[in-house]
Amino acid sequence: MKFLNIFLLIVVATACLPAQKTSIEKKVDAILKKMTLDEKIGQMTQVDYDALKQHPADAVTFSIGSILWGGNTEINDLTAKGWADLYDSLQALSQKTRLKIPLLFGIDGVHGHNNVTNATIFPHNIGLGATRNPALVEKVAMITGKEIRGTGIQWDFSPCVAVARDERWGRTFESFGEDPNLVKELGAAYVKGIQGSELNGQSLNLACVKHYVGDGGTTNGKDQGNTEVDEATLRAIHLPGYVETIHGGALTVMPSYSSWNGNKLHGSKYLLTDVLKNELGFKGFLVSDWAGIDQLSPKFEYAIEQTINAGLDMAMIPNGRGQRNNYVEYITLLKKLVNKKRIPMSRIDDAVRRILTVKIQMKLENSLTVDRTLLKEVGSAEHRFVARDVVRQSLVLLKNERNILPLSKKINKIFVAGKGANDIGIQCGGWTIAWQGSEGNIVAGGTTILQGIKNTVSKETEVLYSADGSIADSSGVAIVVVGEKPYAEMFGDRKDLSLSKEDAALIEKIKAKGISVVVLLLSGRPMIINSSLQNSDAFIAAWLPGSEGQGVADVLFGDYVPTGKLPHSWPKSMDQIPINIGDKNYDPLFPFGFGLTYK
Ligand code: BGC
Predict the structure, then answer these.
(1) 50 is an active site residue
(2) What are the residues whose beta carbons fall under 8 Å from the beta carbon of 397, sequence distance 6 or more?
(3) pLDDT of residue 563
(4) How far is Cα 268 from Cα 29, in angstroms, rounded to an integer?
(5) Domains (ranges, CATH) in the chain?
(6) Quick check: bond before 406 cis, omega within 30?
(7) 44 near 24, Cβ under 8 Å?
(8) pLDDT for the residue 1
(9) DSSP state of 250
(10) Considering only Cβ atoms within 10 Å of each terminal Cβ, which end of the chain, N or C, has fewer?
(11) Cα separation of 355 and 28, whole Å?
(12) Annotated catalytic, 382?
């Protein structure tokens, strides 16, 4: 009995002792102790390269913690080597600061390292959703991480775990789909692939799960709009992606520009601190979206006060000196707010502790210069082969009359039509080299759909291409590529998702020649296709497949049997939108999960 009491006493006493600090915690404590308020604020500042390049010494003067390249940030040399050289020169600045804390560099690698001309460009997330293949998504993320690291950068603003509920939203293609279960599964796979089991500071990257929370649920699919749902719905539809990725070890999260019932996420203490940090136990740090703070108040000082007190840890400050809301103004105002005790020192210490913990976990001190052996990984044949496989697995076959697909490789003549058939920029979509993407030959080393077709057919087969279909006659089979032209956030919202009149007319004109017509739709979302679907013999939703058009040809000619499944319910008409699985009176043109295969 006496023995048991002593035992209990020891158990209770041990439980009351403060937990042993890990070596990382001890390191963070030691650095924090040395830091001045200015140095702490510097760590909480992320500056866009476009702004910093005017005054690079500011990185030293203000002990800046992080640099990003936004969608439109200009650099002189877009090759992987150009990026790596730039990384080395910028990271060297961190070693001129008093504490020599390495800089963390962030970029949007949202479908591969998509700002680098010779990188592997994967299908956008909507296509990954169609693969239903978490192991493949993990591989995509691992390769993306490697290619990003090949240019030095260690932080990918990805995955986007938006649950896009209204296809009018111009960021629908950045979402894995309309179903929270699909999104959480693929989001977690992405984080696993990009971060690995351990952030070892070598070939792996830091994930950034975005845009917290409800970005895909805004009324009328308005970008940066208002998500008007009760809390149970917010939690059931839009939160699971965060629960899953945070449990999977995601170390950074980006709040959304959007609002929840009228309150901007960037200023929501309830959602940022109470739910994310306290309830979900998120131990990493929060980085704002691009100038996301600015939207909280016309007075920058109030905006900063609100967001930092709400729980934001690092601010993404896009503009340069001399402009409103630039980083110098942010740094000055944040210091003033702390000195006036409008932001408690404990909040600053918490933010800096979170940032330093991630930096130390990543062993950034081992990567002060780019490991040039990784350079050859960027756009390697091995990576492109995986991307090609992702393309094959992402295509969704919606119609296949008389089993005209797969096409024979020995057909006499194939007429290929539509601008997108011979335009790698169109097949990549937004967030490719430029923020909004663009038409044309913008990336190096990939394959257009037309080239993929030519590579696949027999020597005897004639492949004739005309964008407007004018070459087509009654003597062959036609492959017509139609759909959307590149766009990204802010510019991609649409009231009408009907296929353009020109596209519908092109399909009709070629069908009128009396030949079989295979339609390939390149788009960031389901579109209203009714009459064109009727005018086609086979119809494939190919999403935005990226640089490896060969994967499309693999499916057309039967080297791969289609397996893709719709990540969205496909509406019959605009007045059905929003339409989502589980709706009352659910009656789409094709249901969520639909996808034919070959017999
Ligand atoms: C987007 C984010 C992106 C950030 C940095 C913002 O406009 O909403 O998704 O990560 O820019 O480029």
Answers:
(1) no
(2) 405, 538, 539, 540, 555, 562, 564, 595, 596, 597
(3) 98
(4) 28
(5) 37-377 (3.20.20.300), 395-576 (3.40.50.1700)
(6) yes
(7) no
(8) 47
(9) -
(10) N
(11) 10
(12) no
CA of 435 to the centre of ligand 1 (A): 9
DSSP conformational letter for 279: I
How do strand 413-417 and strand 462-466 relate by DSSP bridges? Answer: parallel
Residue 446 burial by CB count (10 A; 0-12/13-18/19+): exposed, middle or buried? Answer: buried
Pocket of ligand 1 (CB under 6 A): 70-71, 108, 157, 210, 289-290, 489
The pLDDT, as a whole number, for residue 191 is 96
**Catalytic pick from 167, 489, 493, 537?**
489
Model pTM above 0.90: yes
Q: Whose CA is nearest to atom 11 of ligand 1?
A: 290
| 308 SS3 class | helix
Condensed to tens digits (0 to 9), the pLDDT of residues 44-86 reads: 999 999 999 989 999 999 999 999 999 988 888 989 999 999 9
- Closest ligand 1 atom to residue 210 Cα is 9
Q: Which residues contact 336 (CB under 8 A, 6 or more apart)?
A: 301
CA separation for the pair 264, 260 (Å, rounded):
6
The closest alpha carbon to 214, from 180, 245, 191, 181, belongs to: 180
pLDDT of amino acid 487: 98
* Torsion, CA 145, CA 148, CA 153, CA 157, rounded to 10: -60
Distance CA(192)–CA(185), nearest Å, equals: 11
Q: How far is the CA of 556 from the centre of ligand 1 (A)?
A: 35
